From TrEMBL:
GO terms for molecular function: oxidoreductase activity, acting on the CH-OH group of donors, NAD or NADP as acceptor. Gene3D superfamilies: NAD(P)-binding Rossmann-like Domain. It holds the Pfam family adh_short_C2. Keywords: Oxidoreductase. This is Unannotated protein. Belongs to the short-chain dehydrogenases/reductases (SDR) family.
């Protein structure tokens, strides 16, 4: 039996590294996937990849920080598959200019909060009533290990947005338990994607970071996809309100 047989899943940022790996896994596990992204080409490529592996998916183009667009996107997903069972609030940004609060630019701070945090609230606001209509389901949010530990090289707007997502996750879980909707979050450490690679420009920078990783490697998108799939599935049916760290052990290591 596949883990997500017949489930209808709304994946934000489904054209990106973790969103694509997750969408592909959800599809292999039997789900129908709404691949939601601001980037048309990326969303359509994920849909092509899902179709190529024999799955069913639709590309929905929306800015998930915009309330009108989120409302429309959720409507399109419900129309496409006749309902909604699972929401994966994965879309997020981590601009390189985001450093310390001491020299933060307020417009950029708002932008990061809008895309990371406010989108999580907005997509949940419009998707959860549909999930409740189905008798329950799951919401999976995307936090970060930077919501759990500080960093010598700060990314304060990002870390603050992810900390708020962790808090929102717990509050949503408490409110939605009676509707049989579980709400959990992933909190990944550095996962090697094209974007994260730019933070480690040379082999020495990578070596220094890896010294702190008990499992001695960076994450891969499939690590996040596997946990998101588990949290969305019945195997996690008694888990809610949890922020689950996957970071190769970094946050357990006092170096
Ligand atoms: N890669 C990592 O190391 C890492 C670690 C911890 C958490 N995360 C989180 O995982 C999530 C995915 O990260 P990723 O590494 O796959 O990044 P990514 O840049 O590859 O993917 C993000 C996707 O979100 C989309 N997106 C951005 N703004 C959007 C908006 N306003 N509306 C709709 N879509 C939008 C982008 O177009 C992109 O396809 C993010 O929330 C990120 O913060 C990543």
């Amino acid at each position: 039996m596949k883990q997500l047989e017949g489930k209808r899943i709304f994946v934000t940022g489904g054209g990106g590294a973790l969103g694509r790996a997750s969408s592909l896994l959800f599809s292999r596990e039997g789900a129908m996937v709404s691949v939601v992204d601001i980037n048309t080409e990326a969303a359509e490529e994920t849909v092509r990849m899902i179709t190529a592996q024999g799955g069913t998916a639709v590309a929905i183009i929306a800015d998930v920080s915009d309330e009108t667009q989120v409302q429309r996107a959720v409507g399109e997903a419900v129309d496409a598959f006749g309902g909604l069972d699972t929401l994966f609030n994965n879309a997020g940004i981590m601009p390189h200019q985001d450093k310390s609060f001491l020299d933060a630019d307020l417009d950029q701070w708002h932008f990061i909060s809008n895309v990371n945090l406010h989108s999580t609230m907005l997509c949940s606001k419009y998707a959860v009533p549909h999930i409740a209509n189905e008798g329950g389901g799951a919401v999976v949010n995307m936090s970060s290990f930077l919501a759990v530990i500080g960093c010598t090289y700060p990314q304060d707007a990002y870390a603050a947005s992810k900390g708020a997502i962790s808090s929102l996750t717990r509050s949503m879980a408490v409110q939605l338990g009676s509707k049989n909707i579980r709400v959990n979050a992933l909190a990944p450490g550095p996962i090697m994607t094209a974007h994260v690679e730019q933070f480690f420009p040379d082999p020495e920078a990578r070596r220094i970071r890896l010294e702190r990783v008990p499992l001695a490697r960076f994450g891969v998108p499939e690590d996040a996809a596997g946990l998101a799939c588990f949290l969305a599935s019945e195997a996690a049916s008694w888990i809610t309100g949890q922020i689950i760290v996957l970071d190769g052990g970094i946050s357990s290591n006092y170096l």
